[in-house]
Amino acid sequence: MVLEVCLKGSEDWQPIEVLGKRRGFIRAQFEDGKSKWLDLSDTKVRGKDPAYSLETAKTPAVVSGESEPATMVAPEEANEAGETTAPVDPETAQQLSEITRSFNYQQQAAFFLNAFWREYGEEAEQFWTWSLRFIELDDNGKNGVALDEVKARHFLQEIGMAMSRQAYLDAMRKIDVNNDRKMSFLEFLMFSKGETPMDLLAKPQDGMTDELEKAYQRKEQALQALADLEAEKAVLEEVASGTGVKAMQARTQLPNFKKRDFDDAAHDIKTAERAIKKAKKSPELREKGTEFFEARGGEHAKPKKAAKAHTMIDGASAANTSSLHENVQELWQEELVLVIRSYNYKQQAGYFLNAYWEDVSETAEVLWDYALAMGENDAMQGQDGSCLDEGQAIKFFRENVEDFDDTATAFRKKLREQICLNNDKRMGLVEFLLFQFELEVEELMTRPQGGQTDIIRATTQKLKEIKADIQKWEDKVAAMETLAAGSGVKAKGAKNQLEQGYGRNEIDDLKREQVNQGKKRRKAENSEEMTEPGFLWVMERQNQWNIENPQHRGYN
Predict the structure, then answer these.
(1) Same domain, yes or no: 482 and 411
(2) Taking the mean position of all CA atoms in its chain, how far away is CA 260?
(3) Do 340 and 378 sit in the same domain of this protein?
(4) What is the pLDDT of residues 325-343, one digit of tens each?
(5) Number of domains forming the structure of the chain
(6) Rounded CA gap, 513 and 426, in Å?
(7) Are 367 and 448 in contact (CB under 8 A)?
(8) Is residue 132 a contact partner of residue 117, using CB atoms and an 8 Å limit?
(9) Domain range holding 35?
(10) Which candidate among 9, 64, 241, 472 keeps its CA 20 to 30 Å from the CA of 457?
């Protein structure tokens, strides 16, 4: 059977083949070979299928030259009171089942609280008490995952939710999401708090902050703006495909159709994504439910397996995983300190422009103004300076950032925690730009610079690798010499290998490559060739500035 569907949020009709049907859902295969379950409550369908009733849509999307499309109405499940419940799609039910079958009661409670800590964190102690009662009622004790119908009804009666037999059966139709005739702790919590499985599984396990929520909203708005623009353009393309004056006009409009609006929408999406990435680094984003249950309940409260966070892996805590990062030394971290504390303000502007030339070259003048302003605020070094102290930095913000109204104390905290990258309580231009544009320092420091810097980076990395490889071979040779100093068959074999030049060729080859890479790096370091677009722009802008300001000639 082949139908056409119009998915939620779209106006396009797509042909599908129906692979399967369940109450309120159809399994659809699209032309690209992909398939998914579609919720008929928010999916428009046209075509005839005797298994479903078709009703005229109240606000149909009418396609030119076609009759009004029909919307397939999803059958709803009704209890004896006539109430209806929205069906849960099979994939969500399956995902929820996998969690409840793997997590014990307290792990399920932690999972729920991780997602809804802001809403129900104050009730964590009540959840703890309920979980203990689930354990008492279950023959499997602390390893149990769900109560059968008899024990589930017993629990509901205990907590003041006594029901008649029929009322209980009606309630279980809502509670038992995966239809296994049992009540897991997750299912009970969702029922008692009015949360849906879709809401639960859509929530991040490390919680939410106001900042992150706003960033998500910004991205959603930007995506909607882009979708609206694409819909407008599709209409224009439809007109352009025809004949006559209107078609000709449409074809002339298409190449530059709302280009600025499209660029703005794309920019807003990227900005929102950066804001999301930044907000996700908040220390408030933790699995607070897991933390509570681990602290409250001991070992058996620790989850068995991952649920998008380190504390959900065999009970591992943050303290056990932080050491994984302590010994990682990035080359860019060394380069960062050089840039923010050795480059002057204009050189920092050039460095930033090199990395983001494609993104911000049109607004390079703004960075130039920032560089000049920093030099003006640097009372000691002027334009030759590289960073401002706390007093100079807050003055710079007040003069150059709109709506800035931080107190000195608030700004000092912001400088220390969000702006300064090397803990010296100072601010270079690069640090300000990263903060102001909500960018990640690692992204900046690992982007190509477009010139000698990239060669220096590559050769430095290669030299470190060569040095490590030489050390490995020298250790192997030393071990072989120790073995050869002994007696027996193995010692004789080791002596023979050493006589054959064991490791000598490998070490010699590595040292030759070490010399070659060293030469390349020195050549790049001493080169006067300039290909970096940001540095070139700054040099040209400096020449222009010198001409415009002859009284400050030589002021660089």
Answers:
(1) no
(2) 27
(3) yes
(4) 232 346 788 888 889 998 9
(5) 3
(6) 40
(7) no
(8) no
(9) 2-78
(10) 472
